[in-house]
Specification:
Blueprint lengths: L7 H6 L14 E4 L3 E5 L3 E6 L12 H15 L7 E10 L2 E4 L7 E7 L7 H6 L5 H17 L4 H4 L4 H14 L10 H17 L1 H9 L3 E3 L9 E4 L2 E4 L7 H4 E3 H14 L3 H15 L8 H18 L8 H20 L7 E6 L6 H12 L2 E4 H9 L14 H20 L3 E5 L5 H13 L4 E7 L2 H10 L12 H7 L5 H4 L2 E5 L4 H4 L5
Parallel strand pairs: 11-13, 11-14, 12-13, 14-15
Antiparallel strand pairs: 1-2, 2-3, 3-6, 4-5, 4-6, 7-10, 8-9
Helix pairs in contact: 4-11, 6-7, 7-13, 10-11, 10-12, 11-14, 12-13, 15-16
Length: 512
């Protein structure tokens, strides 16, 4: 990019002598449609562009100062090591001064610079992002959301009219790109999906609002706004400039991360993040609104990428790349509106048979929702997943409640187009018959995966198990084996048997 297209302030900020501290040369400059970020070595400085997109207004110096301070206020709790201060920039003649004492002509957010290699987006591009890290991210976001505040005012942003309005704005802002980055068909069908959702799911959205799922969230939780630094995952750069983008359903945040991973071609990593988040929070019902927000997040990435096409500071080469990227996002937003047929897979087998391992692997392959009975049970009891349950957690009554809830969620999600994997022993004919009957009533395909292994293997697995939500121990195996009821002749046609001591992955049929 030619520096001649940059504002004079940014040109000077590219010079080492601008800063009152040592810098690493050359100074790097990153930009989005709303800001410039100067990377100097130890510190990074963000300058907000004087733009007004309607949903964002940085057009006056007073607004830019206000939102710089908001950025610090909102991000310091999550990333205190990154967000440091707001500095005034003054001017003497043709020279700008960082931290000057005269009247400010601009403001900068000062941050501690972390290596770009620690961004999850960079780690992804270098093939370094793992499923384990995505599971850790799921836990981090779940913990973040548990602390996010809400209030009557914040909840008011969960009203259908307000959600509809700020999604509608995205369509308005992209009309000029129809026929270019997106097709007329994609535009019309994507918009029709969200219009239909608001018309048909008003009660669901009201329930989300009334049950305190509308909170002060991050609002822009994609991989470029998450880093792995100082051995911990840190969320940064949350939305400071628009309350409707921040006062949102927690699933809005979750959808951004899932969408970003899927847009990069790694649905398996998105699935690892999503299933971990859901298990930590117990918010499986929130999946009902996920398609709306997945489509919205893909569309908003398409929108903001399209804005680069109108920016004189962006090169022709970068604009061509932006056009292609925007088209991919518009297509993804459209694809999210195509609801598939749901189904249910029952896991079955004794403790230690490998049910959860198989279910987890299958979930990654199918993009399925993995529901573990151990987690469902503890959520019903209102207890932390990592806490060992007392005997009262495993009474016959509590076990029945757990299976009832597991099946209720399975039917709910399958009816919404998800594949739901119900991970439990399902060792009783009555429990299996109930699931089969409900699936037939709702015309939902159902199959059973029965995991098995020699008793000594089961025992060794349970003895070596640590840090798992399950409380099962090796001394329970004999009673479990004695109580297990065989599959009936009618069930046999639904059952696939997996010996988990063998190469079971090659035996795992996707259509099972």
């Amino acid at each position: 990019m030619s520096q001649t297209t940059l504002p004079p302030l940014i040109e000077q900020m590219m010079e080492p002598g601008f800063y009152p501290h040592p810098v690493t040369e050359p100074i790097q400059m990153l930009q989005t449609h709303i800001s410039y970020v100067l990377l100097t070595g130890d510190f990074a400085y963000k300058i907000k562009k004087p733009v007004n997109f309607g949903f964002l207004d940085f057009s006056t110096i007073a607004q830019r100062e206000h939102f710089c301070h908001e950025e610090i206020r909102l991000n310091q709790p999550n990333a205190p090591e990154i967000y440091l201060d707001v500095l005034a920039i003054t001017q003497e003649g043709n020279r700008f001064i960082l931290g000057g004492t005269s009247e400010a002509v601009e403001y900068a957010v000062k941050m501690c610079q972390f290596p770009q290699s620690s961004l999850l987006s960079t780690m992804f591009e270098e093939g370094m992002l793992t499923e384990v890290q995505m599971e850790e991210l799921g836990k981090t976001v779940a913990h973040f959301h548990s602390k996010c505040k809400t209030s009557d005012y914040i909840r008011s942003f969960g009203e259908v009219a307000k959600i509809r309005e700020f999604i509608k704005d995205n369509y308005q802002h992209t009309l000029k790109y129809i026929g270019g980055s997106q097709t007329q068909e994609q535009y019309e069908e994507t918009k029709a999906f969200s219009d239909r959702f608001f018309a048909e799911q008003a009660e669901l959205l009201a329930q989300r609002r009334d049950n305190n799922f509308i909170r002060e969230c991050h609002g822009d939780l994609h991989l470029r706004n998450i880093c792995l630094w100082h051995n911990k995952i840190q969320l940064f750069d949350c939305i400071e400039f628009n309350e409707p983008f921040r006062f949102v359903d927690v699933m809005y945040d979750v959808a951004f991360t899932v969408m970003d991973l899927e847009a990069r071609g790694r649905k398996d990593l998105g699935n690892a993040f999503l299933n971990t988040y859901l298990e930590q929070t117990g918010d499986w019902s929130g999946l009902q609104v996920l398609p709306l927000y997945l489509s919205r997040q893909a569309y908003v990435r398409a929108k903001v990428t399209s804005f680069l096409l109108d920016d004189s500071a962006v090169s022709a080469e970068a604009k061509q790349e932006a056009s292609t990227t925007a088209a991919n996002y518009y297509r993804l937003a459209w694809n999210y509106t195509k609801i598939e047929r749901g189904r249910i897979i029952l896991m079955s087998g004794l403790s230690g048979a490998g049910k959860s391992t198989v279910a987890r692997k299958l979930a990654r392959k199918l993009g399925a929702i993995h529901l573990r009975s151990d987690a469902v049970r503890k959520h019903l009891a209102g207890m932390p997943l990592e806490e060992k349950g007392e005997d009262t957690l495993y009474t016959a009554e509590m076990t029945q409640k757990t299976y009832n809830r597991l099946l209720e969620l399975g039917i709910l999600l399958a009816n919404q187009g998800f594949t739901a994997i119900l991970d439990a022993k399902y060792d009783k004919q009555g429990l299996r018959e109930s699931a089969i009957a409900q699936a037939q009533t709702h015309q939902i395909p159902l199959s059973i995966l029965y995991c098995t292994a020699p008793m000594d293997v089961l025992r060794d697995r349970l003895l070596s198990r640590t840090g798992d939500v399950s409380d099962a121990t090796a001394d329970l195996l004999a009673s479990q084996e004695a109580a297990a009821e065989p599959f009936t002749e009618e069930e046999q046609s639904l059952v696939t048997i997996l010996d988990t001591t063998q190469d079971w992955e090659s035996e795992l049929v996707v259509g099972c």
